[in-house]
Design a protein that fits this description.
Shape: globular
Mean pLDDT: 82
Structural class: alpha+beta
Order of helices and strands: HEHEEE
CATH class: Alpha Beta
CATH architecture: 3-Layer(aba) Sandwich
Number of strands: 4
Number of domains: 1
Number of helices: 2
CATH superfamily: P-loop containing nucleotide triphosphate hydrolases
Distance between the termini: 39 Å
Helix content: 25-40%
CATH topology: Rossmann fold
Strand order of the largest sheet: 1-2
Amino acid sequence: MGSAGAGLSTGQRQRIAIVRAALADPLVVVLDEATSGLDLEAARAVHRALDATFPKRTRIVITHHEAQVEAFDVDWLVDAGGVTTASRRD
């Protein structure tokens, strides 16, 4: 492993960043492509773990891979300069 984690994969670095955020116990967590380096099942597992660990925390997830997030309260889809909203899915 290199200095400051240089030898870690993208997925490993993303997992470490998520754990560091969880340890800080924030009221709001913004995840911008935080699971993009993970496969679908690993990404879903991360989101399920965050749901279980912080059930009353606000999480804003920015992703190009909507299928990675199984449950949400509000979904905003930005497409071709427009925004649409979906209802709760869980």
